[in-house]
Specification:
The protein is α/β, with parallel strands linked by helices. The chain has three domains: about 120 residues, 3-Layer(aba) Sandwich (Rossmann fold), CATH 3.40.50.12160; about 240 residues, Alpha-Beta Horseshoe (pyruvate-formate lyase- activating enzyme); about 90 residues, OB fold (Dihydrolipoamide Acetyltransferase, E2P) (Beta Barrel). The protein contains 15 helices and 23 strands. The chain has a seven-stranded mixed sheet. β14, α12 and β15 form a beta-alpha-beta unit.
Amino acid sequence: MTTAAAGSPRTYQVRTYGCQMNVHDSERISGLLEDAGYVRAAEADEQPDVVVFNTCAVRENADNRLYGNLGHLRPVKAKHPGMQIAVGGCLAQKDRGDIVRKAPWVDVVFGTHNIGSLPALLDRARHNTAAEVEILESLEVFPSTLPTRRESTYAGWVSISVGCNNTCTFCIVPSLRGKEKDRRPGDILSEVRALVDSGVLEVTLLGQNVNSYGVEFGDRYAFGKLLRACGDIDGLERVRFTSPHPKDFTDDVIAAMAETPNVCHSLHMPLQSGSDDVLRAMRRSYRSERYLGIIEKVRAAMPDAAITTDIIVGFPGETEADFARTLDVVREARFSSAFTFQYSKRPGTPAATMDGQLPKQVVQERYERLIACVEEITWAENKKLVGETVEVLVAVGEGRKDERTGRMSGRARDGRLVHFATGELAGRIRPGDIVHTVVTYAAPHHLNADGAPLAHRRTRAGDAAEAGQVPRTPGVLLGLPTVGAPAAAPAPVGGCAAH
């Protein structure tokens, strides 16, 4: 028995936690389910036929969050026979069968290497009325060959690699995502062209370590070549990438960024710590001098470049002097934004068992000082843009106060968030359109443009947003079971299929 009405397709929801890679994986999960005949449930629907959790294992409390959410769904499922719950992503890869032992009402557990198996696993669990747990140790098929339901009409993620060959002591990703697997350049560019043909203006190239791209086929300059090749795609207006590793950063990438007009002058490059001793303990194979040297070269080639970073506070053994060095590097680097984290243990990582674990109050106090330092710098850097004209790609959901303030929001070419007044163009500007406007006010995390826009360009992405369309990238299910649409639901009868 199912929760769907007789003859109607089964509905689904995907709930995502974690990084951009997980967000993009969720687009693939949605694409697979829709390709198999499922229909996305309305956001307000509290009882879809299938709920998929795409999990993250990076933070210490990731499992508590998952099991708490699974607990909330247990009574919902009990009242709606035939409802299915699936758990995938990094935490599923790590915990495997433990998930079903701890939450026996879960129907399917799948890992990071076999996303494409989900529809078949749901069918099998429904047929057998028993949980299906399938975790592969290596990649079954490169994920981008799977059908994808894109969440944006104007911006798209494109994976160039999966996995990571680094051994950072705080990171569990390599053990969950595996060794780096690189996609062939022609396949990447074909996907980019397909997105552009559907109206997408901006593409972000994704990888655990994008600038080591090419290691698998022996070309250490492959990433710079890929950026330049993106510059030859007509209609592609913005190219971004995340995240590079400082140890693999080469001068040819800086040249490609500077010389390829559609590559944005924005760079997200994780620092993690400004202390060489801590970097050594983290097994990050660069030092602060090398890191700052890259930034110096980037700014010499692109003076307008906006550089963002990741920083961890309170790594085991971090001294006050180590932390002070991090603040020094932050001041010297002049970041436009920083993602800051308090160190937390990741089970299964070397750092989790290191000596010198710091008290919570010490970590918290340093974290607050870091936030204050970062915001002082980002505010000063943003103030330099007051009076400047910026090109804004209009976005959805970037400005939480937009409805109250009468503004719309989007990202400038350098990645900064801009809230802008629409003036006489109110009601005519759509997500995906391009607006030129003048910055009138700066805050640490955003810019305001309160005058009337100087120019507004309607785009195909805006047309698609207005029509309620989202791009869909077809996939080739290489080596996977053939999956058809789920059978239409029979008329409800008594009984309970929940387990």
